[in-house]
């Protein structure tokens, strides 16, 4: 089970006014964003045509993380806050802890190429539900000594429901496109805010009785389980098991990306550095655009979508760019916040 | 006004042009004979050539303001003005711009689309920000004298305007304040010299080149893609526009009569040793001068008494190119003859013939007789039954002057010999006047109209047809040097009736499969454009991309060669779900017979030159021979 600072939950409980929730909704936005770079990096590292099934699974998870980030931003906007997305500190340090010390003090998340150990020790740990449902022989029930992401969101939901509906508004500043209306809708009152939070929790964790967030669509933890165990999750007479259709993994179909790259690790004027800067610049442009979209100009979400597809194209050549240091490794994305590319000399 | 006026900013740095090379081979447009193997990257000019998975991105990389000029003052340090050292960057809130060929049979007018530029000092994200109005490069010549494997030795110029310019913050820069006040609201003039472009995947500057450019004021109603000024036209041997007789290429100048200075742009016309941009050590001493009497012939040499010297070109001064981007101002206030006559006599670029400077060789002369005509924007895509308009300007010694401009077919470097499809046929698919008068402001508007059914489908496997229109002022003497690149390039689309109920199998797949083949970065990694399931999975993003205006950097197809009716058909199909909620698939079409590979035309080239602009020019020369023999 994933743990986070107990103090966060306590602070939410103690909130007297809606604006005392702003920092915690901002944290929720940061939290939902923080897993996207590691997941995307693993996905970008998969060679096309080889591990497409795994790539599709990760992509479906990333899309939902984007949805969750959007829902959290809309709630903050609805109650009068301003998401802060275009600042360097919005992006976690990779490798490093996630926002709210998710996973406990020693839990470090980096940017690494796809591997099954990565999926198990990091991605499944991030997404582990408050009460995991035993799947086949796989079961673990540690005693909670920290708060959980579930508790964090539950506290937010209860507190939001406790304020009068009159604190909600500004629907014209919310982003409500690019996802189906049943999962992305204007936040207009405590009930819709609560429904939004339920979607975040259920898609991430599943419900306490069912690993599936909706028929045929397992929650994130179980999707990563499918990738790790190499089989789709299915219902069995006694519960659930990773015993369905194979999820094929070919270890040769992964680019040998250098883990946790940083722009300044590479020589100025090198291809690796040039492309890493290109990627980080484009990623920063995406954050700038999302910031503007959630701060008064929601139509800009179209530009943000264009930037997301553009990032994928840049990542393709990045992952195929040799470091040229004799290591056989290739460059990779570093998600650093930059708005100016350095001069070559 | 223009970038040759003041105040102006000079910038240097690099650019990336991550162009895809697979669509440089016209026969690859034949979907029936295309195979996935054609998408392989090679460095011997075969298959997908050196960058088949290019994204099309064009962006500035690490560009800084390295010089400026305010009135008669040259500014080179931060202490003189804090604009020095600021970064000229790309947009920070949208995707990068794109570099796009008009057609595989016209790769010599590549346009930048969707590029937004901003100036930032770190504190202010955009001291100004503006949209680079789409413009094609021009004036290609073999500027780079030595090369490493696969280097693009041709250099070119982009001139355009930044539009929708907005200014923010206060940089405490006198130059920026003056520039803002000198320019029309919302506009700036920009010129970029691009050179030293690397194409070898094994070297660090793969897909990168160098850029040195200038930003200056722009006034409403002026041409955007050239300077209304003095036009120096280098002579080039027939069939090879890349190597000027005098070793120095064409350039433009502008007189500032009030200030009694002449600004000349040497940013593109001087040869460089290698991709670094260091000047060719063989450049002789250069002097700009005014010819005292008009000549009816192009002179190859002059005596010292026949010219008034304006000054030496400073190219050998350390740091000169970075600080000026090659723009040099000549002060003639101390020469009464020049004050009286510079606006009515031709300019000449000279090099001494004798040690005592008693005579000079003439390397480049102003247009013979002083007349010049130029189409401002010179590239267009025309729908069946549609038209395109071109602003035509005429000048006499740089001043707008009324005359007559004559138009005639001129396809310049377009097309190639068989098996490439013929171009410019049928000849009557587009129409335009054979001549037009320009008004007192030296301006006329040329309208080119396509027949209701356009050219038909003369090239078979590739949509539309290419046409070229040459132009010249009526007074242009037969012996005048003309700029090979001064012509209008038109892609006239084929007719395409919009079907009432388009289906994937019958209508959409044949269109999208071709894009899938020729834009593998997308089809291999994002959306398999020839695959129904993949396309409907990404329907929303494709709807967005296919419905953007052509200026938008997100526009699809990147190559911008889709006719309006085909676009409408695709959008109608996407927006009309069938009973299953998805766009109509339709009855399976019979599997198309695999056609035998078309033998691509081979010219005798080093591998490094294949699938390149050099090859395109060799094909052009071969086509001329072929037509002469036919």
**Coarse shape of chain B:** globular
How far the N terminus sits from the C terminus of chain B, by CA atoms, comes to 48 Å
- The percent of residues in helical segments of chain A reads 40-55%
Instruction: Quote the beta fraction of chain B.
Output: 25-35%
| Helical residue percent band of chain B | 10-25%
Write the topology of this structure.
The complex is a heterodimer of chains A (345) and B (630).
Chain A: E1 3-4, H1 6-14, H2 22-34, H3 36-44, H4 52-78, H5 116-127, E2 147-148, H6 149-162, H7 190-205, E3 212-214, E4 217-218, H8 220-229, E5 231-236, E6 239-246, H9 271-293, H10 301-319
Antiparallel strand pairs in A: 1-2, 3-4, 5-6
Chain B: E1 8-18, E2 57-70, E3 73-75, E4 87-90, E5 97-100, E6 111-113, E7 115-120, E8 128-132, E9 135-136, E10 138-141, E11 155-167, H1 174-182, E12 188-195, E13 208-216, E14 230-233, E15 251-256, E16 261-265, E17 287-291, E18 301-303, E19 307-312, H2 320-324, E20 327-331, H3 336-341, E21 347-352, E22 359-366, E23 371-375, E24 379-382, E25 387-396, E26 399-400, E27 404-409, E28 430-431, E29 435-437, E30 443-450, E31 465-473, E32 487-492, H4 504-518, H5 520-525, H6 532-537, H7 539-546, H8 564-574, H9 613-629
Parallel strand pairs in B: 24-32
Antiparallel strand pairs in B: 1-2, 1-13, 2-3, 2-4, 2-5, 4-7, 5-6, 6-9, 7-8, 8-11, 10-11, 11-12, 12-13, 14-15, 14-22, 15-16, 16-20, 17-19, 17-21, 18-22, 21-22, 23-25, 25-26, 25-30, 27-29, 27-31, 28-30, 31-32
Task: Please give a structural write-up.
- Chain A is 44% helix and 7% strand.
- Chain A is mainly alpha-helical and 345 residues long.
- Chain A has two domains: 3-252, Up-down Bundle (Ferritin), CATH 1.20.1260.10; 256-345, no CATH class.
- In chain A, strands 1-2 form a two-stranded antiparallel sheet.
- The model of chain A is unreliable at 137-145 (pLDDT under 50).
- Chain B is of the alpha+beta class.
- Chain B has two domains: 8-19 and 54-366, no CATH class; 370-492, Immunoglobulin-like, CATH 2.60.40.10.
- Helices cover 13% and strands 30% of the residues of chain B.
- Chain B has nine helices and 32 strands.
- In chain B, strand 2 (57-70) and strand 3 form a beta hairpin.
- Chain B starts with 7 loop residues before the first strand and ends with a helix.
- The model of chain B has no long low-confidence stretch (mean pLDDT 94).
- At the A-B interface, helix 9 and helix 10 of A face strand 1, strand 2, strand 4, helix 5 and helix 7 of B.
């Amino acid at each position: 089970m994933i743990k986070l600072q107990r103090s966060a939950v306590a602070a939410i409980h103690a909130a007297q006014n809606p604006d005392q929730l702003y920092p915690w909704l901002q944290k929720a936005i940061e939290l939902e964003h923080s897993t996207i770079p590691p997941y995307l990096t693993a996905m970008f590292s998969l060679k096309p045509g080889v591990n497409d099934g795994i790539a599709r699974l990760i992509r479906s998870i990333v899309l939902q993380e984007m949805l969750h980030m959007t829902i959290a931003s809309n709630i903050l906007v609805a109650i009068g806050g301003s998401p802060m997305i275009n600042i360097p500190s919005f992006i976690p340090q990779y490798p490093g802890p996630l926002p709210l010390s998710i996973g406990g003090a020693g839990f470090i998340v980096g940017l690494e190429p796809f591997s099954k150990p990565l999926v198990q020790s990091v991605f499944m740990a991030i997404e582990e539900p408050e009460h995991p449902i035993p799947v086949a022989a796989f079961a673990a029930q540690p005693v909670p000594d920290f708060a959980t992401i579930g508790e964090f969101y539950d506290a937010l939901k209860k507190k939001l429901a406790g304020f009068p509906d009159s604190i909600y508004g500004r629907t014209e500043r919310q982003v409500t496109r690019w996802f189906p209306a049943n999962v992305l809708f204007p936040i207009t009152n405590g009930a819709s805010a609560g429904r939004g939070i339920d979607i975040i929790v259920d898609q991430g964790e599943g419900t306490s009785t069912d690993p599936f967030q909706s028929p045929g669509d397992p929650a994130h933890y179980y999707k990563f389980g499918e990738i790790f165990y190499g089989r789709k999750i299915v219902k069995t007479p006694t519960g659930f098991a990773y015993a369905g259709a194979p999820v094929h993994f070919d270890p040769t179909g992964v680019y040998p990306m250098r883990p946790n790259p940083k722009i300044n690790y590479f020589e100025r004027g090198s291809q690796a550095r040039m492309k890493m800067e290109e990627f980080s610049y484009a990623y920063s442009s995406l954050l700038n655009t999302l910031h503007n979209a959630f701060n008064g100009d929601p139509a800009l979400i179209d530009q943000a979508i264009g930037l997301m597809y553009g990032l994928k194209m840049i990542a393709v050549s990045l992952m195929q760019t040799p470091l040229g240091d004799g290591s056989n490794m290739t460059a990779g994305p570093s998600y650093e916040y930059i708005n100016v590319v350095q001069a070559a000399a | 006004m223009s970038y040759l006026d003041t105040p102006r900013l000079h910038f240097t740095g690099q650019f990336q042009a991550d162009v895809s090379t697979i669509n440089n081979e016209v026969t690859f447009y034949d979907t029936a004979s295309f195979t996935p193997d054609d998408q392989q990257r090679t460095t011997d000019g075969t298959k997908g050539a050196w960058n088949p998975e290019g994204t099309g991105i064009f962006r500035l990389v690490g560009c800084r303001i390295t010089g400026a000029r305010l009135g008669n003052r040259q500014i080179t340090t931060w202490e003189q003005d804090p604009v020095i050292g600021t970064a000229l960057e790309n947009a920070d809130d949208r995707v990068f711009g794109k570099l796009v060929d008009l057609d595989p049979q016209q790769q010599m007018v590549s346009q930048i689309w969707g590029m937004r530029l901003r100036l930032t000092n770190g504190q202010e994200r955009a001291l100004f920000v503006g949209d680079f109005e789409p413009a094609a490069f021009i004036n290609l010549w073999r500027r780079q004298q030595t090369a490493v494997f696969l280097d693009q030795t041709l250099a070119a110029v982009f001139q355009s305007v930044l539009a929708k310019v907005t200014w923010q913050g206060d940089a405490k820069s006198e130059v920026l304040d003056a520039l803002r006040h000198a320019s029309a609201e919302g506009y700036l003039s920009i010129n970029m010299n691009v050179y030293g472009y690397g194409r070898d995947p094994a070297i660090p500057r793969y897909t990168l080149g160098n850029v040195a450019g200038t930003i200056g004021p722009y006034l409403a109603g002026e041409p955007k893609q050239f300077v209304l000024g003095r036009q120096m036209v280098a002579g080039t041997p027939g069939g090879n526009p890349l190597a000027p007789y005098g070793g120095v290429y064409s350039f433009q100048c502008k007189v500032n009569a009030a200030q009694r200075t002449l600004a000349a742009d040497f940013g593109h016309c001087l040869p460089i040793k290698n991709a670094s941009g260091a000047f060719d050590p063989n450049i002789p001493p250069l002097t700009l001068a005014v010819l005292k009497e008009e000549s009816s012939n192009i002179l190859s040499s002059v005596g010292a008494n026949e010219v008034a010297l304006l000054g030496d070109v400073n190219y050998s001064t350390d740091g000169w190119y970075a600080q000026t981007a090659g723009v040099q101002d000549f002060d003639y206030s101390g020469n009464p003859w020049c004050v009286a006559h510079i606006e009515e006599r031709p300019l000449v670029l000279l090099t001494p013939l004798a040690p005592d400077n008693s005579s000079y060789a003439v390397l480049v002369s102003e247009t013979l007789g002083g007349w010049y005509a130029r189409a401002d924007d010179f590239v267009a895509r025309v729908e069946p039954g549609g038209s395109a308009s071109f602003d035509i300007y005429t000048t006499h010694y740089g001043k707008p002057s009324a005359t007559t401009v004559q138009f005639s077919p001129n396809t310049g470097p377009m097309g190639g010999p068989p098996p490439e499809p013929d171009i410019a046929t049928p000849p009557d698919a587009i129409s335009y006047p054979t001549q037009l008068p320009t008004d007192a402001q030296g301006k006329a508007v040329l309208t080119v109209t396509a027949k209701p059914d356009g050219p038909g489908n003369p090239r078979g496997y590739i949509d539309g047809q290419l046409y070229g229109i040459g132009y010249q002022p009526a007074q242009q003497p037969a012996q005048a040097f003309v700029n090979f690149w001064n012509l209008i390039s038109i892609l006239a689309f084929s007719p395409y009736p919009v079907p009432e109920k388009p289906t994937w199998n019958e209508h959409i797949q044949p269109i999208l499969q071709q894009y899938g083949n020729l834009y593998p970065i997308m089809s291999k990694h994002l959306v398999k454009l020839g695959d129904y399931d993949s396309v409907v999975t990404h329907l929303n993003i494709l709807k967005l991309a296919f419905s953007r205006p052509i200026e938008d950097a997100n526009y699809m197809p990147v190559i911008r060669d889709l006719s309006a009716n085909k676009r409408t058909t695709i959008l109608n199909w996407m927006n009309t779900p069938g009973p299953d909620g998805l766009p109509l698939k339709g009855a399976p079409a019979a599997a198309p017979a695999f056609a035998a590979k078309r033998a691509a035309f081979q010219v005798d080239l080093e591998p490094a030159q294949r699938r390149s602009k050099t090859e395109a020019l060799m094909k052009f020369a071969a086509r001329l021979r072929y037509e002469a023999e036919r």
